[in-house]
Predict the structure of ECF transporter S component.
Amino acid sequence: MKEYSVRELVFTALFIALVYVFTWLVKIQLPFAPNGGLIHLGNVPFFIACIFFSKRVGMLSGALGMGLFDLTSGWVAWSPMTVISALIMGYIMATLNTRDFRLSRYVLAAVLVTVVKVLTYYIGEAIMFKSLLVPMANIPGNVLQITVSAIIVGVLIPPMSRILKDVKL
């Protein structure tokens, strides 16, 4: 396993903080999902880290940024689901897009990431609530959350590609 460079450590810490802040500042509690259902924009810096940096930076920024948000914001029971889903989502997004971005792969990654998020939270909440029906209330919010973030990131990729083209870890 490759050792961390100071630069990679700094970018990882920066993106963990950005994911946390974007999750904390821009969030909407879904009225039809009282036991969960939070739409946030933490996936925007998470996806950017996956696309422009490395798998490790992306995966850790999502897992730790959103996991810490859950632990510090009253969503403690959801933290394991968040960490697991973010690690898998980050792996997928980074594997398909890091340093060699193509729109078709980005769309595929966004679809796969949505499936992972929905399944991870559905399974976790089914166990948590001992019900196969209750977790269904959060599916629309999870799909909307990833879709909105994916669109925002899709718009940001071209200008960011020009800005970050020379940044190497």
Observations:
- The helical segments are 6-25, 43-52, 55-72, 79-97, 103-129, 139-164.
